[in-house]
Design brief:
Chain lengths: 508, 376
């Protein structure tokens, strides 16, 4: 088969680091080719080179057999290469059609936009690739999965034959991933070549025709999914054994650290988004909350943290009612929080690591004394977090945005852990981070559990839930519908509970 | 280590230096086009500024500009655009001038009373915009612009008629104002302190005592912002309100507090003139509030940076007079220079920010590739 893309000897250096070191990649026409590797393995740099965003220092790029020099994304688009970024680049206030034609508007005379021609072309693209979307919907009303579909259509609309998908599943829930994979297969059937960047091994094995693994900027190897197991891939990626979440012996005590009783939160339109939830987390226990995203987990967490005021019910922390206390008082009482969205809820990206390591704890020693900040205390703690939690950074003076996702997450977890919380709310603590960092996060949570930490774990990673939790509760439409023993449940069964397919036994 | 420090210092000073250099070059081009000799104009400006009396003028002008810049900077730190400094200082000016003339207090208390009234009025007026924002979602830009209109063509125009001192007319014949404050309420000038280091100040120039107040405000602003938990709350809430909220800082509370503090400092802007004249004149020095926004922008909201920016602007303002007198160039050239400096400063700061970001990302990537052993 002809090669759609052939990269030979691609090397890219940044000051002090070689991001890509003699990379070779051959992508056949019409295949789904996955690029795997940990964060920092050089995947993103390679894709930026291929998309014309950065020139390589050396090496050659062949597109459809022709040697090309890419200087800009526009040029890559002309060559039929399209990129779907991990973070969507859509205008919320515009419709799907307007977003798709933005920058490539079909024109009529006198500079007027020909929306009809755009709509026709959009429908054509949608039909040809089996992508179903309503052109007149406002983007802000769309689900994440649908937004991603708009991004893909945007690229196809511009005539792309080679699609680069940058960690497309990072933001999706399992059902949406299925939908995405169905779409990808249809794209392939219609002759598109897909370059798929991911580090979730099961997904890669499911979707890819060929897998190329990168490690520390080098090509480790190219394999067929039929020839390898997830285990083999992980070993190629990290050069060692694949970590598994495993809670070990139970450390659950009798002492209740966090209790939620009959909690109700009403959403827009007066519908209860959290509907009579009761649960308790003991010292030394990890309670996992399973559920398809959007079933009230986020609202439950917000109520427990204090971001939202619950309408009914009570929350008790260490025996004291905190239902309507401020976030700050709860935190001072020993409530730790690892948010789902690091950038939005966890970090001050333009601030230094030592400032970030105080965020949320700035009123407590050693970060401050009375109204005065203690820089020495902050820096001291930051240094400890950096060392104990293996945050890879040149020093604690760099700003947080310089760190990779996994290291940002380790910083956040470390910050919460060194504060010695009594209760930790971990909201998707390993989302979007690589295998190595994931194992580190699991280890840290387990270790703290042994010290008596009560943890409420919300996760979409079923392996993680089953592996770490002492008890799993399933949330569906705002209610807790099942309480399960992780030792006796498989991910498949858990999935059935999450969608409501399994027998519903209300524990509320 | 010293190399790295030198590098950082260089990066930090590169932007403002580049901005001034480019501004001088562009202004020279404008001067040449308009048929003036740029070197002659600059020589006039520098020669004028080297005189002690001119320097007093520059400091007198820089003092309200600095306060106005700090007021705007407090808002900017919280991601708020307090465009209402103009109205806030004029309102604080007229109210404190009026109330200050009604009371009879010992000197120190009297001055403190007037300054406190000015800060309270400015703070309350600006805080109102903050309350509107958090309770009704009114954008502070819109509300403060509207409140400017309420003050400038509304309240102050009405009150100056209500409160003017029984039709009292000043020596020059035209200036009408509020009743003069007793001497006990007027902050003395600090010529004596200046003259400790220099010769006697001539031409009847008086260095304003508000300079000391401005310095105190700058120091308090710096310490509050960088050394207190409250300052950390403010900076973090401004940088990322959601993350800061998760970290225990209520963004609504910070918006109201920041607007109030910004307005309180704005209230002091008019005090330089009040402490000079002793009353609110019918045509007070205006536009200080709007200029303050530019000063804060040029000074990067940093207490020292804003001070330098205020001095630069004051120098240019004071120079415009001499250009007209000497005829070396049109006085409007200083307005062009101000604009060009701001424009180039904004661009230069952004360029430096990107360079720094790239260097940090590369260093972090290197640390990651090197592994934990080398990273410590």
């Amino acid at each position: 088969m002809a090669l759609a893309i052939e990269l030979t000897g691609i090397t890219k250096r940044f000051p002090g680091v070689v991001a890509n070191d003699d990379i070779h990649l051959a992508v056949a026409e019409g295949e789904i080719h996955a690029i795997c590797g940990e964060n920092g393995a050089g995947k993103s740099t390679l894709m930026k080179i291929l998309y014309g965003m950065q020139p390589p220092d050396s090496g050659t790029i062949k597109i459809g057999g022709e040697v090309v020099e890419l200087h800009s994304p526009a040029q890559a688009i002309d060559l039929g290469i399209g990129m779907v970024h991990q973070h969507f680049m859509l205008a919320d206030q515009l419709t799907v059609l307007e977003n798709v034609i933005l920058g490539a508007e079909p024109m009529r005379s006198l500079g007027r936009i020909d929306f009809e021609a755009g709509r026709e072309h959009l429908d054509e693209v949608g039909r040809a690739y089996g992508l179903d979307i309503n052109a007149d919907d406002l983007v802000e009303t769309l689900e994440i999965g649908e937004r991603q579909r708009v991004e893909i259509i945007k690229v196809l609309y511009r005539g792309a034959k080679i699609l680069i998908l940058d960690e497309p599943t990072a933001v999706l829930v399992p059902q949406e991933v299925d939908e995405l994979f169905r779409n990808i297969r249809e794209l392939k059937a219609d002759g598109a070549t897909i370059l798929f960047i991911d580090h979730k091994l099961d997904e890669v094995l499911e979707i890819a025709d060929t897998i190329t693994v990168l490690r520390q900027g080098r090509t480790v190897g190219t394999v067929k999914p039929t020839d390898v197991t997830a285990h083999d891939l992980a070993e190629m990626m990290i050069g060692s054994e694949l970590p598994v979440p495993d809670a070990g012996a139970s450390t659950v005590t009798e002492e209740v650290a966090l209790a939620v009783d009959g909690l109700r939160v009403f959403g827009e339109g007066g519908r209860a988004v959290v509907d009579g939830v009761s649960l308790s987390v003991h010292r030394g226990e990890i309670v996992g909350i399973a559920g398809v995203e959007g079933n009230g987990q986020a609202e439950l967490v917000n109520a427990v943290i204090g971001l939202d005021d619950p309408d009914e019910g009570a929350i008790t922390l260490l025996g004291r009612e905190i239902t309507h206390l401020s976030v700050r008082s709860r935190r001072e009482m020993g409530l730790g929080y690892v948010p789902q969205d690091r950038h939005r809820d966890g970090l001050l990206l333009s601030f230094t690591l030592w400032e970030n390591s105080a965020l949320g704890h700035q009123t407590e020693a050693p970060y401050s004394r009375g109204p005065w900040l203690s820089r020495a205390g902050m820096k001291d703690r930051a240094g400890r977090i950096k060392a104990d939690f293996d945050v890879r950074a040149p020093n604690i003076e760099v700003s947080a945005h310089a760190l990779s996702g996994g290291n940002q997450q380790k910083l956040i977890l470390g910050r919460e852990m060194v504060a010695g919380p009594a209760v930790l709310i971990a909201n998707h603590p390993t989302r979007g981070i690589d295998v190595g960092a994931q194992a580190a996060v699991w280890d840290d949570i387990r270790e703290a559990r042994a010290q008596g930490l009560a943890t409420l774990l919300v996760s979409a990673d079923l392996e993680e839930l089953i592996g770490l939790s002492d008890t799993i509760v399933v949330m569906l439409r705002g209610r807790l519908v099942a309480r399960l023993d992780p030792n006796e449940i498989t991910p498949r069964d858990l999935g059935a509970y999450m969608t409501g397919a399994a027998l519903e036994t209300d524990v509320a | 280590m010293t190399g790295r420090l030198a590098h950082r210092l260089m990066l930090a000073s590169a932007a403002p230096v580049a901005a001034v250099v480019i501004a001088v070059v562009l202004s020279s081009i404008v001067l040449l086009i308009s048929g003036s000799n740029p070197l002659a104009a600059y020589a006039d400006m520098v020669q004028h500024a080297s005189k002690l009396e001119t320097q007093v003028d520059i400091f007198n002008r820089a003092t309200p500009l600095y306060l106005s810049g700090v007021a705007a900077a407090i808002g900017f730190r919280m991601n708020l655009f307090n465009i209402g400094v103009e109205g806030q200082y004029l309102l604080a000016f007229i109210v404190s001038a009026h109330l200050g003339a009604q009371v009879d207090l010992p000197a120190v208390l009297h001055i403190a009373f007037i300054l406190a009234v000015a800060m309270a009025v400015g703070g309350a007026f600006s805080g109102a915009a903050g309350v509107l924002k958090v309770t009704r979602g009114v954008n502070e830009v819109i509300s403060t612009i509207m409140l400017n209109a309420v003050v400038i063509s509304g309240l102050s125009a009405w009150w100056i008629v209500e409160w003017q001192a029984g039709g009292e007319i000043s020596a020059t014949g035209g200036r009408v104002g509020t009743e003069p404050i007793a001497d006990s309420g007027v902050l003395p000038n600090i010529n004596a302190w200046l003259e400790l280091f220099t010769r006697e100040v001539g031409l009847g120039k008086k260095l304003t005592g508000m300079l000391v107040v401005a310095l105190v405000v700058g120091i308090v602003y710096h310490v509050m912002l960088n050394r207190t938990v409250f300052g950390f709350d403010l900076r973090s809430s401004g940088a990322n309100p959601t993350a800061s909220h998760v970290g225990g800082v209520s963004p609504k509370r910070m918006v109201v507090i920041a607007m109030t503090l910004s307005g309180a400092v704005a209230g002091l802007v008019g005090m330089t003139e009040l402490m000079n004249t002793g009353y609110y004149p019918s045509n007070p020095i205006s536009l200080l509030g709007f200029t303050g926004i530019a000063v804060a922008l040029l000074g990067r909201n940093h207490p020292a940076g804003v001070a330098v920016a205020a001095l630069v602007f004051a120098f240019l303002d004071v120079s415009s007079g001499i250009l007209q007198i000497s005829g070396a160039a049109s006085r409007e050239i200083v307005e062009i220079m101000k604009g060009v400096i701001i424009l180039t400063a904004v661009i230069a700061y952004e360029v430096v920010r990107r360079i720094r970001e790239r260097e940090e990302a590369a260093a972090a990537a290197a640390a990651m590739a090197a592994g934990p052993a080398a990273a410590s």
